[in-house]
Write a structure and sequence with these properties.
Blueprint: E1 8-16, E2 19-24, E3 36-39, E4 42-48, E5 61-65, E6 68-71, H1 73-94
Antiparallel strand pairs: 1-2, 1-5, 2-4, 3-4, 5-6
Length: 95
């Protein structure tokens, strides 16, 4: 059972037609909540883009706690750095 103060992180997959498609971070998701569906091993959530913080863009990480989405810039930077590092490793292995 999850508490109302529990924070879940979501990554903005895409925003189209005023609807944002969010992917739950599997390490922080406690299971599908209202409005979520399971895709593979991850939860996907569709929410009106108007409910997201201003200037949210694809690839951003958001925290969700007490029914509110908030920017998670440190988490976004850390995830982008990990992805960049993995891409660099793949490129180096191909060289």
């Amino acid at each position: 059972m999850t508490g109302t103060n529990e924070t879940t992180f979501y990554i903005v997959d895409r925003i189209e037609g005023g609807v944002a498609i969010l992917q739950a971070d599997p390490s922080s998701a406690a299971g599908p909540a209202a409005g979520e569906t399971t895709v593979g091993s991850q939860e996907r959530r569709e929410v009106p883009a108007a409910q997201l913080p201003k200037d949210t863009r694809e690839g951003d990480c958001l925290s969700f706690s007490n029914g509110v989405f908030a920017p998670a810039p440190e988490e976004s930077r850390a995830r982008r750095a990990r992805i960049r590092s993995k891409l660099d490793q793949l490129r180096a292995a191909r060289a």
